[in-house]
Amino acid sequence: MDKDYALSMANFNEFNTYVNAALDNDEITKDEWYEIVNLHTTKWYLSYDNPRAQSGHGGDEYHYRFSHLPIIECLYKDGTFLDVGCANGHLMEMVHKWANAIGFDLQVFGVDISEGLIELAKKRLPQWYDNFYIANRYFWKSEIKFDYIHLMGIGGYPEYDERICFEYYMENYLADGGRMIIGPYWYENEDT
């Protein structure tokens, strides 16, 4: 991982701890929490000039493939794929490419709270312009159900909303026989 990115990630984690404590202590409302996190994340992601970092990944292309390619193991048929918290659409782009390489045809969609990141996604991937949605993923309303729904993790919500959000997507947006895909999830541990 790039040293500058690692330092920035540490600052990002400190920020998240601070804003979560402010919510827990009723210093800010849940709506304010979402707006603050949105502004901070958008600024952080857009401060980078490569698609991986603009989607929240600090490693090189090899590390990105190593950590995200296992998503493809969840595919078992053609269908619709929703990336919740899609940022600049990089994961959608890669999953579509990898799925095609193994013979699956995916229609990809993305939702993110950040207008700036969705604008970037639409510029980067104009072929999917109409498949990107700007919305708080916790309150988003979709007209279709998806065969695959990807959540990087349950983060991106106030802690007590994580399970509610997961269940909300399962019950409202996952097609019969569909699959929820969570991850990849890893953490840095200095002891390992």
What do you see in this structure?
This protein is 42% helix and 16% strand. The C terminus is likely disordered. The two termini are 16 Å apart. With 192 residues, the chain is α/β, with parallel strands linked by helices.
Give me the secondary-structure topology.
Layout: H1 3-24, H2 30-46, H3 61-68, E1 79-84, H4 90-101, E2 106-112, H5 115-124, E3 132-134, E4 146-151, H6 162-173, E5 174-182
Parallel strand pairs: 1-2, 1-4, 2-3, 4-5
Helix pairs in contact: 1-2
By helix and strand content, what is the structural category? alpha/beta
- The gyration radius over C-alpha positions equals 16 Å
Average pLDDT level: 85
Q: Biggest sheet: strands, sense, closure? A: 5 strands, parallel
- Helix content estimate: 40-55%
Give the H and E element order. Answer: HHHEHEHEEHE
In which order are the strands of the major sheet placed? 3-2-1-4-5
Count of alpha and pi helical runs:
6
Low-pLDDT stretches: 186-192
Strand content: 15-25%
How would you concisely characterize the structure shown here?
This protein is of the alpha/beta class and 192 residues long. Helices cover 42% and strands 16% of the residues.
What are its keywords?
globular; 6 helices; 192 residues; alpha/beta; five-stranded parallel sheet; 42% helix
